Amino acid sequence: MDPRQKEFDAALRKLTPVFQRQLAAKDVRHDLYGRDQLTWNEYERIGVARTDGEAADELMKALRRRDSRVLDILVECLAEQQEANADLIHKIRNFFPEKPRPTPPPTNDPEPVTTYDDWPAPVATTPTSHPPIPPPPEEGTDVGRKDAYKMSSKPRGMALIINNRNFTCGMKERVGTNKDAENLFSLFNWLGLATMRKDNLTGKAITKEFEDLSRRDHSAYDCVVIALLTHGISGRLYSTDGDLVPIEELTKCFDGVNCPSLIGKPKVFIVQACRGGKFDYGVDSESTDGGDTAADDNEQVKELMEKQSSQFDRVIEKALDADETDGGGYSREALPTEADFVLAYATVPGYVSWRNSEYGSWFIKAFVDTMRELASKEHFMDILTEVNRKVAYDFQSRGRNKQIPAPVTMLTRKLYFRPGGR
């Protein structure tokens, strides 16, 4: 037997009573499931355990079915709340020291191609820590109203992130998308969602993930959240093998016919992809309300956008490395008609969306930052309005291109995620 595996087995025996006393198994299961360290059945058994001790026992059974790397991953999960879990992490490392990592050889890879005037400051700086969860709202605020969706289950619901970076069909690599996926994964866990991330999926694999998730029983949960990060055109998304997957087909998986356990519950789709080939060159915020000059200027901008649009494929290949688009061609868009859906699109129909090679896409960056700031006190549509404002005012490419997100809502109540159990 591998010496490391022997050390792992011995550590688990010693850690069993420690985990029964100190480990919040029902909380850490979300992170372990999201990192593919628990099966769905193991995740459920931990969740339905009657006591914390029984939950810890179920978690230990699952850990024993894994190899030694699972304890390192568990420590990573606990380290997200380092202060609260410091003693537990110390005990795990006392019984199971971290495996020394070899020093990587020096490389001559260039620094990421980006310029800081492409990315707004200070809003767009990468946060090193997240703001604390604000205190619970006082009685009488919107959060306590009867016209809000129920949002108290633990976990709040299931979340899926589909992150396509590398394409086998000749499309450009989506540099920076992994940063989006990492930020969304952390955000969703903070919101109390059981999160799974899938990278570089073919068309068939995307459809299968949606069908599998829609067939699960969501009766015990209050929502579902799905993020799609890929190239796109109007109404359709590109898979890594070049298939075009209609967004309408994906949302239909969760309508009242195909997923009855989500009837009356919010179904949130976050779509980071282009919806056409047009570029938004912006307008002067101090321009007049009318007059020939303004009309002439707008007509010139319109003609220029149409010209750029017709040459989209050629322009995209020459796009800047720092700020890239997630684009394709054109198609008529269809929207789902079922209630309780909200689709948060990165851009309006017909236009490209932008992505920074170092910090990720403008839209996801603004979305994550704004959710961290406001999710504890504002409802989701107000948050998306603030995301619109940030993207519109705070972001601009080196070519002075602009972008405006375009949320589409079929919600029937106010949606509060209430992180931290509120």
TrEMBL record:
Biased composition (Pro residues): 129-138
Signal peptide, first to last residue: none
Single GO BP term: regulation of apoptotic process
Active-site residues, record numbering mapped to chain: H231, C274
Protein name: Caspase-3
Record keywords: Hydrolase, Protease, Thiol protease, Zymogen
InterPro entries given in the database record: CARD (IPR001315), Caspase-like_dom_sf (IPR029030), Caspase_cys_AS (IPR033139), Caspase_his_AS (IPR016129), DEATH-like_dom_sf (IPR011029), Pept_C14 (IPR002398), Pept_C14_caspase (IPR011600), Pept_C14_p10 (IPR002138)
Domain of life: Eukaryota
PANTHER family tied to this protein: CASPASE (PTHR10454), CASPASE-2 (PTHR10454:SF210)
Region called Disordered, residue ranges: 96-145
Species the sequence originates in: Geodia barretti (Barrett's horny sponge)
GO terms, molecular function: cysteine-type endopeptidase activity
Domain Caspase family p20 residue range list: 155-278
Location of the Caspase family p10 domain: 331-419
Family statement: Belongs to the peptidase C14A family.
